Amino acid sequence: MSILVDSSTRLVVQGITGREGSFQTRRCIEYGTNVVAGVTPGRGGETFDDKVPVFNTVQEAVDEASANCSLIFVPAAFCADAVLEAAAAGIPVIVCISEGIPTQDMVMVRNYLQPQGIRLVGPNCPGIITPGQARVGIMPSDMFSPGRVGVISRSGTLLYEAVAQLGERGIGQSTCIGVGGDPIVGTTPLEALRLFAADSDTLAVVLVGEIGGIFEQEAADYIATAMAKPVIAFVAGTTAPPGRRMGHAGAIIAGASGTAQAKKEALATAGAVIVDSPADIGAATQRVFKERRLL
């Protein structure tokens, strides 16, 4: 099994005719993802690479191609409208790669989507991949392999690092999700943990956090009270100076709760296996699998 995307995913790419949208759509198709439609207003009736029909609206992609997942590559100023259009068309899973979306836009979008049960991943994220089934994002897909470890990361680069280490030890992944590095995201680490907890084929979860916000503390509360599966956690930014943004819009320490140390302490208290260096993520996961006889 997996979470959010799998072999039944029928993907529509919003912004398919743009440079990045075109490039990544081809990579998704090469991976085996079922890309059934693209959307670019004013380009309806065209085909992408003589294979994928292009529509003017997401609603047309749903009605004519039965799309059930959207991947968004549009400029930040138009992302909120793109997400809302996909939601209005009944798309249940929306992945937004674009970065630089105004926080106020994301507040509005998240408040609109939550009551409807629509799942947004991102923005400012690498997307989702279920190895061997579907790639909905921008990940370098050759490093992923099917297996039973879920991976959640606020950082795209550290997601790739974690997966590379798992692969070196023959540990495959059920689904890997980059939740994004903005202060407000569509799916938080806590929400992703809940999805993996309900997935019978995910035996353990690697959680990669970073400084800023309280996402990791929220995850820790859930791990302590409701997560039966082991969680291996790394928090980036131990040496980051307070008050300075480090890479991501959400990676800024504002108060004691935003520090890496506070997050690590909360996760450790909750029962997660803490990894102090990103170089040890794979070894720690392998050790947990052996100790708990999960292999």
Shape: globular
Average pLDDT taken over every residue: 93
SS-based class? alpha/beta
SS strand fraction: 15-25%
Number of strands: 14
Give me the side-by-side strand order of the main sheet.
3-4-2-1-5-6-7
**Element order, helices and strands?**
EHEEEHEHEHEEEEHEHEHEHEH
**Biggest sheet statistics:** 7 strands, mixed
Rg, nearest Å: 19 Å
Tell me the distance between the termini.
17 Å
Counted by DSSP, the helix tally is 9
Helix content: 25-40%
Explain the layout of strands and helices:
Blueprint: E1 11-14, H1 19-31, E2 35-39, E3 47-48, E4 52-55, H2 58-65, E5 69-72, H3 76-88, E6 93-96, H4 103-113, E7 119-121, E8 127-130, E9 134-137, E10 146-153, H5 156-168, E11 173-178, H6 189-197, E12 204-210, H7 215-226, E13 231-236, H8 260-270, E14 273-275, H9 281-291
Parallel strand pairs: 1-2, 1-5, 2-4, 5-6, 6-7, 10-11, 10-12, 12-13, 13-14
Antiparallel strand pairs: 3-4, 8-9, 8-11
Helix pairs in contact: 3-4, 5-9, 6-7, 7-8
Name the descriptors.
14 strands; globular; 295 residues; alpha/beta; 7-stranded mixed β-sheet
Protein architecture, described:
It contains 9 helices and 14 strands. It is α/β, with parallel strands linked by helices. The strands form 2 sheets. It has a 7-stranded mixed β-sheet with strand order 3-4-2-1-5-6-7, sandwiched between helices. Strands 9-8-11-10-12-13-14 form a 7-stranded mixed β-sheet, with helices on both faces. The chain is globular. The model is unreliable at 249-254 (pLDDT under 50).
